[in-house]
Amino acid sequence: MYVSLPPFHTRREVMDLSDVIKENLLPFLPAKSLIKFMCVSKEWNQWIKSPLLAFQQSTHFTKLSGFFAQKQHQDPTFITLDSTSCGVPKPSLDFLPESVDLLASCSGLLVCQGREANEPLYVCNPAIMEWTTLPPPLLYHGAGAGTVLAFDPSARNIEQRYNLICAVPILGCGNGSELSFELYNSRTRLWRVLDNTLVELVEDLAMVGPGFYMKGVAYWLTNAGMVVAFDVERELHEVIHLDTPPSVRVSEGVLTEMGGELRYIGLRHLSGDRYEIMIHGGMALSLQRAVEISIGEVDCCRFRILPGFDGETVMIVGEDWIYCYGISDGSLQGKIGVEYESASANKHLAYVNSLVDLV
């Protein structure tokens, strides 16, 4: 049987188009979509599995995909913002050797702590279910400690190395708390306790909520209403005092990036369906703007503020709903229903659906 082939130039155009898609579109897609596309052809399968695409995708796809949430003593779950393209295969993270508690996230990676007697630390990529166990730290990281994962996917970090920065309160130091910093380097696989410690004459320097990392600096909120900042490269720290009204629970706000700068965004209930969003910024994280919004009828007054899709959006999370609020234009976008009591979770970690490889 004779089969006619398309003209050579047509075949060349098809081949060129496939190469263009493969090299210029795939790196900008979330990991879940890429895994689906592995069945397109053997060539695409090999390309998507390649370390080069994993590196390119981790540097190009930075869109918020959802939140890992966890209630105390329960397994994690995943709140996706787009179930078709940004889900994860096992939201409870049961591909890990044991049940875990969430600690930190950054650019597609999660840090978790096991619940067995020795409480091992794991770094994992839930999109591709890869994980590694870290060596035991030198200090005991109790409930009041804060962990920040510092991971910068970029051309300068082609080996995709990361650091963990742990702020560990040590109580019983006179009238206040002593805060020690312990660092882990994925290249050396070693922990190191820094000599410089931070002593503040306050009763409680325990960390609240997840830490936040941006532009080489780790940040933590504390029960004392302060922000502790740590410069990873220079290994220097400072304390920023938040000026918030007594009625505001600092732990229900969020540290995030807006306009390339650090912001603290708080939310307080005024009355009925009226709430106020407070935006703190500048070197002193002083109050820069307060906006009153009306959310509408809600089942309860429990809420949290979380980072949004980009640097101009925040998310207001209730028991089983999420609102998106645009800071720049004051728009309150649609109500997103979730099958999880979101506000009652004590941890929410922002997550990016990434192919970043831990091997």
How would you describe this structure to a colleague?
By secondary structure, the protein is mainly β. The protein contains four helices and 24 strands. The chain has helices at residues 8-24, 31-36, 42-49, 51-60; strands at 66-70, 77-80, 100-106, 109-114, 121-125, 130-133, 146-151, 162-173, 176-185, 190-193, 198-200, 207-214, 217-222, 226-231, 236-241, 254-258, 261-271, 274-281, 286-294, 304-307, 313-317, 321-326, 332-337, 347-351. Strands 7, 8, 9, 10 and 11 form a five-stranded antiparallel beta sheet that branches. A four-stranded antiparallel beta sheet has the order 3-4-5-6, with no helix packed on it. The protein has a four-stranded antiparallel beta sheet with strand order 12-13-14-15, with no helix packed on it. Strand 17 and strand 18 (274-281) form a beta hairpin. The chain is globular, with a radius of gyration of 22 Å. The relative contact order is 0.14.
Counting DSSP E segments of at least 2 residues, the number of strands comes to: 24
Per the principal axes of the C-alpha atoms, what is the gross shape?
A: globular
Percentage beta strand: 35-45%
- Can you tell me the residue ranges where pLDDT is under 50 for at least 5 consecutive residues? 8-12
**From the structure provided, what is the oligomeric state, counting identical versus distinct chains?**
single chain
Mean pLDDT: 83
List keywords for this structure.
single chain, 359 residues, mainly beta, five-stranded antiparallel β-sheet, four-stranded antiparallel β-sheet
Short description:
Helices cover 11% and strands 42% of the residues.
